Amino acid sequence: MKAANSSRSKSEISFIVNGDRKTMRVHPMERLLDVLRQELGLTGAKEGCGEGECGSCSVLLDGILVNSCLIPVLQAKDSVILTIEGLAGIAELNCLQEAFLECGGAQCGICTPGMILAASYLLQHKPQATMEDIREGLSGNLCRCTGYSQIFEAVAEASRRKATA
Amino acid sequence: MTTGRIVGASVPRKEGRDKLTGKAQYVDDMQLPGMLYGATVRSRIPRGKIKKITFGPGIAWDEFTVVSAKDIPGKNCIALIVDDQSCLADGIVNHQEEPILLLAHADRHALPKAVDSIAIEYDPLPAIFTIEESESQSQIIWGTDNTFKTYLVEKGDVDGIWERADHIVEGEYTTGAQEQLYIENNGMIAAFDPQHGVTVWGSLQCPFYIHKALMSLCNLPADKVRVVQMETGGAFGGKEEYPSIIAGHAALLAIKSGCPVKIIYDRMEDMAATTKRHPSRTRHRTAVTKDGKILGGEIEFTIDGGAYTTLSPVVVSRGAIHAGGPYYRPNVRIRARAMATNAPPHGAFRGFGAPQSLFAVERHMNRIAQTVGLTPVEIRQRNFLKPGQTTTTEQAIRENIDLEKLLDRALQLSDYHSMKKRFAGENATGPAKKGIGIAAFLHGAGFTGSGERNLGSVVEVEACADGSVRVLVSSTEFGQGTKTVLCQIVAETLRIGYEDVTIAQADTDDVPNSGPTVASRTVMVVGKLVQSAALGIKQTLTAAGVIRPAYSAQEFRAACRAYVAAHGALRSSARFEAPSDVFWDDEKYRGEAYAAFAWAVYIAAVTVDMTTYSVSVDDFLALQEVGKVLHPVLARGQIAGGVAQAIGYTLYEKVVWQNGRMQNSQMTNYIMPTSVDLPPMRVFFEEMGNIHGAFGAKGIGELPMDGPAPAILNAVEDALQVSFDSIPLLPEDIYEKLASEAVVETEFR
Amino acid sequence: MVQYAAGKLPARKLVSVWNLPELRRIETFPDEIRIGAGCTYTDLRQNAIIRREFQLLANAAGWTGGIANQNRGTLGGNIANASPAADSLPALLAYEAELVLVSVRGERRVPYVNFHTAYKKTKHAADELIRAVCLRRRFLDYFCYSRKVGARRAQAISKVCVAALGRLKGPIVQDLRVAVGSVAPVPLRLVETELVVKGKAIDQALLSVAGRTATAEISPIDDIRSTMRYRAKVTGNLVAEFLQKLAASAKNE
Ligand SMILES: Cc1cc2nc3c(=O)[nH]c(=O)nc-3n(C[C@H](O)[C@H](O)[C@@H](O)COP(=O)(O)OP(=O)(O)OC[C@H]3O[C@@H](n4cnc5c(N)ncnc54)[C@H](O)[C@@H]3O)c2cc1C
Ligand code: FES
Ligand code: FES
Q1: B363 and B709 Cβ atoms separated by less than 8 Å
Q2: CB B148 within 8 A of CB B353
């Protein structure tokens, strides 16, 4: 984050996050991740690497899974953003979160918000995801605790429940 | 009232909901009013004297808080085992990441440029980077002989066995450094005011290690130092000793600036500067009879400790004690040494020396099998430890373990024999070679020898005014499930609901010192203490006459409420007491090294692609005996996660060094496995029970790190009929070895 | 963005070309398709024509980073970034792509083949934008082979990657293109190797000659990800594997 603010000319940027419109004055090259965490207090997205490798900063931008550490906030202008905080509402768990809780999909929890968003993006596009689909769909989200197997189980379980629901 | 309903059940993780909804607060999620951001100026040479420090032009230095060694109120060292590591270098640097100065500024974007603009001139001194260079003593960089610690373990008469031997089998095995690579980087926030002293909040494993380090560094009494653990995003040993340094840095900046200061490492700094697993070299020389019985032998285990002592003495000790593997050796001599080099200190990492020495012994068993003409299965069957026999430290096996049975079950579950036969056939043709390999091993739970006695851990359990019960320990949660399992133990002990038990945040102002969260000791040692403290609550309530012997959970809640209303807070504590029949000699390194061992057999099936020389693990079977499994989902998660990390250690994760500095300190070039790189993991448990732990549980956290490397390399040997004795084993290494042994022609198939 | 955030790019005026509609179209004509330079890897992977007729490109898109990277990274960015390890570029070489460049001076169409002139250097002028990539639709009947060798199966920068097309007439290799990445300062078409193979029947001897020629044609280096020797050997192996599979494809028909 060196150059990003050497010229600190801010501009007004507005987008909808978790259903609320937010308008703020920020430097246009500020990373979306920092804006979410620092300006908006949405600390669910985490920084694991800052270079697009780990996926712990994943959010959905206009319904598309992205790494928010790689998005200059100007590219989020007028977009609709969903972060982990907006997924199910306060204190609610959706089907995927429930399955993660039961299957052991979260250990230290630091990869979890990104992982859940990646999984939810996957299931949205492939409701009947096969094991292969799940592995590929989560391959941009690194987890050091679980060895992934209980995450796979959780996603498969959620997909099953959604199908029968 | 039924028993066994909570322990053994996969109840939801205590902090699970917060983690799933993004509510859980990690240190970087926390902000304090007026907070500054801190950064560290580090050495960029491996060894030398600092000549001159120049603050570059173009920076508004008056806006910065700058801290150097001169600003340290107390002792300039990170108190741990030996006080040889400075908090900030004072004149001399011994590795490329040694902290020299600290900066703080309100705008974190202002820091990188300021750090870069500080020019440091040195008088460089010659540096050393390998175990061999350290041993040769061409340069003395630490003490009088570059040696942090040596141990000698002796059993029987080793010198007498060589002439009785039919075979003498020798081998040398090496392992590389490994980065813990928790996904949450290290970070701390410190605040200071003269009245309350220093408070730090951080990502950490051992609150009281930091507490001790800060007292000495800041020259403050115990009640003026407070350490609070935030939710911790993975640790694996990597947040055992290093956080004391970061906490110290943040505290110094906070003291000098008068503002709270946050230091969060970015990934590059975290990887390059903080600890990694110790590189190691193990040499075996083993006397064997013609039918494959081990008569005994010599083992030399040496680790590269980096520039300062830190935890190397303890790591090399654990490695040495595990070096014999799960085999009976009537005569053995183990020499273990931790050597100094000019790399950043290596440190704690899941397994703590055992993965290194067990890798060596399990590769060596295959070498012995080859020499004697037995199969890898037979050589292990003939030498397994049995109840009544003793380990290398002469600890008698008092548990009723049956390793042959464990091996048999693993062979069956993995379909070993038919796979092996099939692979041998298929490998004759085709561009892929398949193989299957075994590793059998043990892992000691709890601190080594008299460690637990010296620690004297204390826990508390509290009956609360609202009728719930609260556990107070300094044992930390960083993914393993500490909170969940300790609450389960209390619920089970008191026969109340799991929801009725909560656990306090690890805050040194609130919780007693239950010891560090390391060494697979939490469930076994702390769990047992929590169990007795919980019983204390019940006794008090019974004595006060507020509950009957048979009570419901609801009645228990009412009793707690009534008691607290009448008498005030009710806390019950328990302190570790060593069993009287446990003997350990610290001088001779002999006796009961561990309160309990977990036992395991792992089997890996691999394919080596002869077009790219890359190894993929196709199937992984992990069978272990860990006593009572308190929470099946968590237990499986620990094993699968450990195996994954160990597969990384074996086949992917190579630290590229240049002059003692990590070159690949990014996630894009330090390669940990992704979701598509790992095999299906088949995890099985065998329960035999152990008298030491709560409800018969042993430690489990580190065990899975030990077996995968040798199992995989044994499988690669089976596939290629070529032996590899070094990890990480990368495709480039396989290619070079095959080329040098002319297994790969220079022609293209 | 990573370089920008890390301060490796000078703070200057940056133009965001993200999501410009004219850059994100894939247009289909009878004899060619025109891929807007702003198309993401996900766009490429999802396009039916690319999947059917330009499998090498679809495969390369699927190798790139993780899903989130594929949702944001663009083909134009991959070309302009000009990494020798870029995964899509060998495919573009194999398909003999043409680039449409635009600037205030207007549009020009240039063959992609010599676009990369040296390590991280390209022929496009500082004020030029890559507008589109054009691929001729004439490879449907070619056998295609592509393989990426990275340090892991996902989220990996290539140590070697190959994209190749081939067509047999009877046992004879009538036409082929072989392009490689990560083994030279720029993505490379293996012209010599193509020459020694073209017009011949594939046998063991030819595999060896092709492998050797490929090895001689490239100039791999030792770096943080791999070694020169490994890259050379594996490139040869992959070329041989391609030819073997090409030969086998005839037998399967
Ligand atoms: C985590 C991660 C993993 C990656 N993995 C891979 C991988 O596996 N394989 C691989 O090949 N690549 C990989 N990359 C690199 C990346 O895919 C490419 O560099 C790329 O496609 C970037 O596209 P972009 O649109 O984001 O370009 P940007 O990063 O925005 O731009 C890259 C450069 O291209 C210029 N540029 C962009 N579009 C145009 C245009 N239309 N005309 C002219 N100039 C333009 C920009 O000004 C800039 O100089 C990875 C990158 C990341 C961050
Ligand atoms: S922090 Fe964005 S991908 Fe790692
Ligand atoms: S749960 Fe810890 S990194 Fe995934």
Answers
A1: no
A2: no
Spatial separation of the C-alpha atoms in residues C84 and C120, rounded to whole Å: 7
Q: With beta carbons less than 8 A apart as the criterion, state whether B135 and B335 touch.
A: no
How far does chain A reach from its first CA to its final CA, in angstroms? 46
Nearest CA in chain C to B110: C7
CATH number of the domain located at residue range(s) B280-448+589-743 in this protein = 3.30.365.10
Order across the sheet with C26-28: list the strands. Answer: C26-28, C32-36, C129-136, C98-103, C106-111
A24 and A51 assigned to the same domain: yes
**Which of A33, A87, A145 should be substituted to probe chain B, the one whose Cβ sees the most B Cβ atoms within 10 Å?**
A145
Cis amide prior to B728 (ω within 30 degrees): yes
- Rounded Cα–Cα distance for residues B15 and B18 (Å): 6
Residues 6+ apart with CB under 8 A from B444: B318, B321, B322, B354, B593, B594, B596, B597
pLDDT in tens, C32-86: 999 999 999 999 999 999 999 999 999 999 999 999 999 999 999 999 999 999 9
Nearest CA residue ID for atom 53, ligand 1: A52
Question: What's the CA gap between C201 and C70, in Å, rounded?
Answer: 39
Pairing of strands B147-155, B331-339: antiparallel
CATH no., domain B16-25+451-575: 3.30.365.10
Q: Quote ipTM for the complex.
A: 0.96
Q: Do C168 and C246 touch, CB atoms closer than 8 A?
A: yes
Domain spans of chain B?
16-25+451-575, 32-125+197-259, 280-448+589-743
For residue C170, the model assigns a pLDDT of 94
Residue B1, pLDDT score = 36
pLDDT, one tens digit per residue, over B447-465 is 888 888 888 999 999 999 9
Residue B690: its pLDDT value, please?
Answer: 55
Neighbours of chain B (3+ CB pairs under 8 A): A, C
What CATH code is assigned to C15-136? 3.30.465.10
Digit-coded pLDDT (tens) for A1-31: 334 444 468 999 999 999 999 999 999 999 9
> Do residue A98 and residue A78 come from a single domain?
no
Mutation for C interface: A47, A139, A141, A143, most C CBs within 10 A: A139
Task: Report the distance separating Cα B210 and Cα B358, nearest Å.
Answer: 31
Q: Enumerate residues 6+ apart whose C-beta is below 8 A from C183.
A: C84, C160, C218, C219, C220, C231, C232, C235
Residue with tokens 């300790």: B486
Ligand 1 pocket test: which of C9, C15, C45, C81 has the largest number of ligand atoms within 8 Å of its C-beta? Answer: C81
C-alpha distances (whole Å) from B13 to each of B18, B239, B249, B282, B285 are 10, 22, 33, 40, 47
What global pTM score does this model have? 0.96
Indicate if A101 and A122 belong to the same structural domain.
yes
> What integer pLDDT is reported at residue B115 of this predicted model?
98
| Alpha-carbon gap, residue C232 to A39, rounded angstroms | 50
Strands B36-42 and B261-264: parallel
Rounded CA separation B90/B112 (Å): 23
The CA distance from B626 to B745, in Å, is 47
Question: What distance in Å separates the CA atoms of residue A25 and residue B684, rounded to the nearest whole number?
Answer: 55
**Three-state secondary structure call for residue B96:** coil
For chain C, percent of residues with pLDDT exceeding 70: 92
Using CB atoms, which chains have 3+ pairs under 8 A with A? B, C
Distance separating alpha carbons of residues B662 and B276, to the nearest angstrom: 10
Helix (H, G, I), strand (E, B) or coil at C157: coil
Query: How far apart are the CA of C98 and the nearest CA of chain A, in angstroms?
Result: 29
What does the pLDDT look like over A28-87, one tens digit per residue?
999 999 999 999 999 999 999 999 999 999 999 999 999 999 999 999 999 999 999 999
